[in-house]
Specification:
Elements: H1 6-17, E1 23-29, H2 39-52, E2 56-62, H3 67-72, E3 80-84, E4 90-96, H4 103-116, H5 123-129, E5 136-142, H6 149-162, E6 166-172, H7 177-182, E7 190-193, E8 197-200, H8 205-215
Parallel strand pairs: 1-2, 4-6, 5-6
Antiparallel strand pairs: 1-3, 3-4, 5-7, 7-8
Helix pairs in contact: 4-6
Amino acid sequence: MPLLSARDRSYLQELFAKVPRKVKVLLFVDSESGRCPYCHQTAELMAELASLSDRVDYEVIEIGQHPERAQGYDVDKVPALVLLREDGTDTRVRYFGIPAGYEFSSLIEDLVDVSNGATRLSPATREKLSRITQPVHIQVFVTPTCPYCPKAVRLAHQFAMESPFVRADMVEALEFPELADRYGVYGVPKTVINDRQEIEGAVPEAVMLQYVLAAVGLAEEPGDPWGEADADHDHDHDHHHDHGSHGHGKA
């Protein structure tokens, strides 16, 4: 039974027909140990997406059989999606956990951006990201039913697409509860930068940029992200422990 509705399939076919370049997705799975309950469903999802357009290509890689490839892409848990450009270069965009529910839209928008070779960040943000010369690791913890999470994921992923020093992971908190507990994830989205700075909720582009630059000493330590920088913005977050669904959202 298809995971995507006929309406979604039609929409995605039209969307992918407009993009110029192929995107390669590496899907790391572990189908041998029985410890990855969502690996099979994630593979089915990628197979459906690839069947809709020749602009989406994917490869399934057993992490137990190819540990060196996993290590090369900093993949330490499964299922994991790694997005590559048409020429095989790494975008440093990662999905750890099935991109289901609201996060399905994040995946689709990421695929479009990678194919187009351009993000939707402001010129000022792109210029400041170009100054980064040290590694930045962004982890965005989400759940499939969190409506605010895609904003945080997309922002982090676009930062990674723009800077060769930034890697950005979507981490599905329900699939990796030990990791979520380690970082004290009680509401989502929660963003962790270089294991040191933490952001609760989906913040504006300028605020995320300030945190990232501060992580590598290019800006002062940010204060309250819901203070003066965005006084009228709602604190968009959800509580991850209240949700358990992995349904697929609209594309």
